[in-house]
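Appendix B.2, paired examples.
Example (i):
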Amino acid sequence: EKIHTLFPELKIQMTETGSVDPYSYMSYNAIQTNRMFRFGASSLIRWCLVLDEYNGPSDSRNPHLKTSPVEYSNGVITYNASQNEVIYNPDAYFLAHYSRYINRGAYYISSTDIDSSKRLSSASFLNPDNTVVTVLSNDNADPATFKCVFNGKVIEYRLSGKSIATLKWQE
């Protein structure tokens, strides 16, 4: 936030972001991503994009090279070479809330960080075709109702606990 305030003309690129365990933290990851955009980020690059079933590639000189398949990979996609199988991990679905609906040339528009103490968040974007996209996240166990207001239009949406939702409408 401070960098964006001091240098608003600079583009902030969030690179090499990742999650420790997206199976448990997808809604939390969305809250963090919403805040990155709110504080001036213009892009997000997830690390690592594709890993194999051993969480590689890895440098064979690395003494910590994994030699057995793991149950969880924190790559967005896992390619299991032995079975010629592509697996879309939770981060792929988490990122789709942003990448499928926020178009190239869109920009962040003001939205309220609903209540960080209650682990609720939103981020809104205006696409070049004048559609508005709002990504909502509820990191609580209980459902929460969100109220989106833009240019006199009101949308209320009840979001289940530990969930993410994307709303899109014409401005």
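Example (ii):
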Amino acid sequence: LIRHDGAKLGWHRERKSKLTDDEMQRVFESLCFKSRKINSLVFDKPSFYGLAKQAIESSLITCRESDYVNDISKITCLVISEATGYSFVHGSVPEFFSAKYVKGLSEKKSIEFYKKILTGSWKRWRSEILFLEQIDNFRFIKHFEAPDIFNALNIITSKTVATSIDVMDLL
């Protein structure tokens, strides 16, 4: 919003939600993360409003969800309003902003996220992982890549030891 509207001299786009750019983005990141968590990109109106309400509340911001939904669908155009509901303009939008949400988490919450996806659900979060590798490289390596490599080496080592023992038993 800043870059797009800021390029137009004297132009100020009125927002129903009255949120700042930073607040709009913080809520949008939460909204995207929540949508990815339930693995959905298309919503009927009540579901989307409910998700927006959750995102607003978890971001500790005060505004009506209807005003926020109006702003993200009519101003940012990252969400498309259709007759029956809402959808993201492209699948990569919630993936990227979910990754931004994870990047903004505290260290403790970030560790919890990475531990959870390392236990088997990482394939569903593959796009976010690829974004996080770029936008939050240090924590990505520390909490995801290094533990994943360590786990793989442990598996390989234990299989190699087991195979060696099996061969020795045969002799």
